Amino acid sequence: MKKILVANRGEITLRIMRTCREMGISTVAVYSEADRNALFVRFADEAYCIGPPASSQSYLDIEKIIDVAKRSGADGVHPGYGFLSENPKFARRLEQEGITLIGPPASAMEVMGDKLAAKETALKQNVPLIPGSDGAVEYLEEAKKVAREIGFPLLIKASAGGGGKGMRAVYDEASIDEQLTLAMNEARSAFGDPSVFIERYVTSPRHIEVQVMADTHGNCVYLFERECSIQRRHQKVVEEAPSAILTPEMRKEMGECAVNLAKGCNYVGAGTVEFLVDDQMNFYFLEMNTRLQVEHPVTEMITDVDLVREQINVARGEQLSFKQEDLQIRGHAVEVRVYAEDPQNNFLPDIGTLKTYRRPQGPGVRLDDGFEEGMDIPIYYDPMIAKLVTFAEDRDKAIDRMTRAIDEYQISGVTTTLGFCKFAINHEAFRSGKFDTHFVNDHFKSEYLDEVDERRERALAAFIGATADKGNAVKTDQTVLEQAAVSKWRLMRK
Fold this sequence. Notes:
The chain is α+β, with helices and mostly antiparallel strands and 494 residues long. The chain folds into 4 domains: 3-102, Rossmann fold (3-Layer(aba) Sandwich); 131-200, ATP-grasp fold, A domain (Dna Ligase, domain 1, 2-Layer Sandwich), CATH 3.30.1490.20; 206-447, ATP-grasp fold, B domain (D-amino Acid Aminotransferase, Chain A, domain 1), CATH 3.30.470; 449-484, no CATH class. It contains 17 helices and 22 strands. The chain has helices at 10-22, 39-43, 62-72, 88-96, 106-113, 115-124, 140-150, 176-191, 248-264, 296-303, 307-315, 395-408, 418-425, 428-432, 439-443, 454-469, 478-484; strands at residues 3-6, 26-31, 46-49, 76-78, 100-101, 154-158, 168-170, 196-200, 206-214, 220-232, 235-241, 269-277, 283-289, 332-339, 341-342, 348-349, 352-353, 356-358, 365-369, 376-377, 384-392, 410-412. Strands 13-12-9-10-11-14-21-19 form an 8-stranded antiparallel β-sheet, with helices on both faces. A hairpin with a 5-residue loop joins strand 12 (269-277) and strand 13 (283-289). It is globular, with a radius of gyration of 23 Å.
């Protein structure tokens, strides 16, 4: 494999291309008109515009991407995450054209992409499942019967869905009619499939996922777990590895379940098996993501394994470069997702120009991003600006290092989640490890981010004062003011 097309955009495309460059592999970028000046376009060896900003006319257009792959002579395609990364139709079209997908086979995507088929596979592999319906539920009376059997509260979930779409919590029988109708309509709108299933609602869940890697020679390993319980709108904001609550015995049990599930669908490449863990430390299969995860860097930090390099080597037909017994956890890693979102307005996306953009640096700091100062945050795509990762010898030091890195990270022009992330990782619940997926509802209020960071204000005042003392005319620099106003919040602990 000498040339790889990355069928994606932004920070994940840059991250993949950097590993390709280290391996001596040429890279091809595809981009929309909105991304013409993006960093990943400039970094690639070749770049091709494939259409207007809308994803449906660019990054989701299978035939355009395959046409570029053929014209450029790419012999492999890495889909990153999102867009076409879990699309079996795309995988089959690449196979038809003799182009290698750096990912699992289409058959594995189909099994794990259908939640009911995934649950059936998990059942066959003796992976624990949350009590619920055996299959899709289509009628009200059937739903009520299942609800009475498993008890309230319960969850109605779209069979073909994810990201919280088509999901409804039901706390009593009186509301099941309305919630079932809403869930089915949303599933039909989002995924073209109204099928839903019902399962018991785990009221205080932890979201813990296990990274797996498999090759075409029958080898499959787990690279330990990631804790992903700090979420908004059922989507992750803060991740860490390893989890603060797993014992070595439970870690091994969950890892082996993840490996068995991967083997059950003939999985190849990097994948993630997600579990819910209840307040009694019982774990249940949730779903499998058949791609590289956004939060893969924390796993790389604690295992010293380049997951993208392993993906490429597996796609070449090579065996995994390590065995299960070779893997060890070293230190602790924390990741925060830096979104252009307003935490004080229900995390609604923000758009604008990055007037100030200063990256944090120093020991144990990794930043995967795709922007630079002066660039616009486009309205057409996910609002994530970067993934900020810190690594240290233990959890407390990794959190302290993340706090320092957030303080150094200066962004103005758009509102970001940095303030919320600093609040979250320093909250007593997070520090103690006693938190779950309801962290935002239980512990966060928008007014906690209202107060001005006095340290930065004092620094600005000192700067202006020092300039005045020198007898210079005080000309207030707009950039300095913007930097001082970046974090209009003070860390608050409960």
